[in-house]
Amino acid sequence: MRTIRNSASPRTVTIIALTSLTALTVSGCNAVSAGDGGDDYDETAVISDAVDKDTVLRIGDPRTQVALEASGLIDDLDFTPEWANIDGGPKTLEAFRADALDVGAVADIPPLFATWTNEPVRIVSARRTVDPLEHPTYELGVAPGADVRELADLKGKRIAYSPGQAQGALVLRVLEEAGLSQDDVDLVELQSTDDTFVNVIAKGEVDVAPLGIEQARSYLAKYGQDGASTIAPGVPDDPWHLYVPTTTLQDEKKTAALKQYVQVWNKLNLWINDHREEYADLYLVDHQGLSEEDARYVVDRQGDFTVPENWDGLISEHQATADLLSREQDHPEIEVDDLYDRRFEPEELAA
């Protein structure tokens, strides 16, 4: 495995170094508990329905903030939300460690890496996508001339790989689906920040890289005439979670506010299904700077969100992912069920 040292900012390079350091710290251990690292709380305690309006919940989820305001559902929050322009696994975990955030929204990998690096966290809500194979979160961007038309063609190729992020886990899932091992490809390690993956494909430094929907569309628009292409990953990559440091759950008032936020967040996901164009305009166009055409493309590609009837299947899939990362990245084993605070499970259906 190689690591690209590119012209990224010092902050990006620092994150890469920290990821490597924490991987070295936890490697060699046999197992890790979701409770390791302290900050215990009573997971059997009944969560109050009474929400204190003066309770502040610091939330890192810009797209939810915009959608809540557009839908009017923000008025259903009886506590005081304090919004932070923070998203993505590394930034959210950094904010947890700095005690700057109470709840974040991430894919399925950040809670695992938080646990492996001794930051006690819990998942309190989960969202899925209807027909996830038809609506992947990521596509595999293929460099011009790389000749990758199906997953089997990945053999021998240079693949951008970010081990501490959802994109890195996706690469391992894709290899498993294709019947390939890490030895069959050249994994080029770097963090996926901003347009890093698009840039390394365009420069010919890798042959393949996982790209988000917006990135994939931009990549094809810029380099499609040169032979750039994308292929579907062929594996589901849709789980999305609300997760929190356990310090949030030690505070009874914050926990009550979080219970209400879970209910409203799930209502919001269903609202987005019925108001795609409005969501596209307010978040993707006004907030993210996409054109109207690109914004419509993105919301159509993302499909409809759904609320799981229960967490059993979700946890089983999450466990399989954790086991894959444990094997392939030499991490301790995790009992994923311990990461889910199932007191919040019925609050999703209540939405």
UniProtKB/TrEMBL annotation:
<feature type="signal peptide">
    <location>
        <begin position="1"/>
        <end position="31"/>
    </location>
</feature>
<feature type="domain" description="SsuA/THI5-like">
    <location>
        <begin position="133"/>
        <end position="217"/>
    </location>
</feature>
<keyword id="KW-0732">Signal</keyword>
<dbReference type="Pfam" id="PF09084">
    <property type="entry name" value="NMT1"/>
</dbReference>
<protein>
    <submittedName>
        <fullName>Putative ABC-type sulfonate transport system, similar to ssuA</fullName>
    </submittedName>
</protein>
<dbReference type="InterPro" id="IPR015168">
    <property type="entry name" value="SsuA/THI5"/>
</dbReference>
